[in-house]
Design brief:
Chain A is mostly helical. Chain A is built from 2 helices and 2 strands; from the N terminus they run H-H-E-E. In chain B, helix 1 (22-42) packs antiparallel against helix 6 and helix 6 (147-162) packs antiparallel against helix 7. The chains are: A mainly alpha, B alpha+beta.
Amino acid sequence: MPNKSKNRWLDVQIILASLAVTSTVALWNVFARGSSPVASPTDAPTPDPTATMTATPYPTATAMATPTSDPNAVIQLPKVHILLGGNLPAPQPVAAQPASAGSTTNQVSAPKSSGSSKSAPPPAAKTSSSKP
Amino acid sequence: MKRIEFHAMGSRMLALLDSTSSEAEEALRRVPAWFEEWEQTLSRFRPGNELDRLNRSNGLPLAVSKTLWEVFQAARTAEQFTGGLVTPTVLDALVGVGYDRSFEGIPCMQTGHSYASPVLSDLSGIVVWDVPTRSLVLPDSVHLDLGGIAKGWAADQAVRRLSLYGPALVNAGGDIAISGSLSDGQAWPIGIDDPFQADTHFETLKLTRSGVATSGKDYHRWLKDGVWQHHIIDPRTGLPADTDVMAATVVAPTVMEAEAAAKAVLIMGSVSGLEWLEADSGLAGVVVLENGYHIYSQNMEKYLWKN
């Protein structure tokens, strides 16, 4: 008899625990959805106006400084809520590919700074289109 | 290392000799005179010179000097090598877009009617030559500009002469001829200038016996009737090449091949140009696009200075 009542009490405890877990998860979701972002123009990542490449015949500093040409450019991810734990993913650096990148087997690289080969000696001569 | 710098053919020139002997120094001192002699024969901006006489020969045979003969044959080879894209018959088209005098003399803004029509690019079909008499017959409707090929040819000639005194390098306005390794067996470090940043280089190559050249639309440009013009004519249209490439650099067995190939790649544009480069195992190159990106041919890897 004592064993039977003890088993019933254990059943009650299990049911109560289940209800507590379920309600906790349900309430979490309710509150999380209630404050989730609604898509709006201000939340969307706005394109940087300087990212527009114009086919100007003259090389300009703008073309060099465009975010799409910077391998360290950071794309802002849209704001999201994590429902069941975990860490917000860190922004990932991305490098955009040029539209006309030639054969896929060719190495494409973003503009480099002078002397990109750090261990290279100073050049004995330099090639360029004819300088007047 | 001994060096000499001077100005010729409308460009900066540099000659290097990896030697400390007095004979090497003496040889270097003669280089400017060689270039002056070649320029006097080959420039289209020297009225009355041999090229000018050929361009005014009105279809009559003209016996030419060994220099003009060799450069004409080099131009014919370059034309065949590039499928007609690099040809000296573009003179009238160059004048038509405003390049009618030495570049320093071109006003930055011009007005006037531009005329354009496809350029005949078949030297073998339009020029008659006779080997025994070393004479050329140029139709009166065709006029030659040997500017591009002449610089490569001159660099090649000069480096051959200098190599008698030691490892030599000659840079004729960006067209570089190298006779072989340095005295210690190392490769020559050669920079590739960034067309967007004056006097800076974005890559260093290690080169031994070879040629390297760059063709670009970054320096020689001017406005005509509000439209930017540059000096690389596409013979298919008779107009400055409409291309996404700002500058193309090519490494080849000889500087003349490198010069012709770089110009052809610029005219073709990045996609076709790189495909064409990849099809020839003797060529390697890198193109700098108008948006600043660099695209390397697969063969270029072995020339990059990474260690």
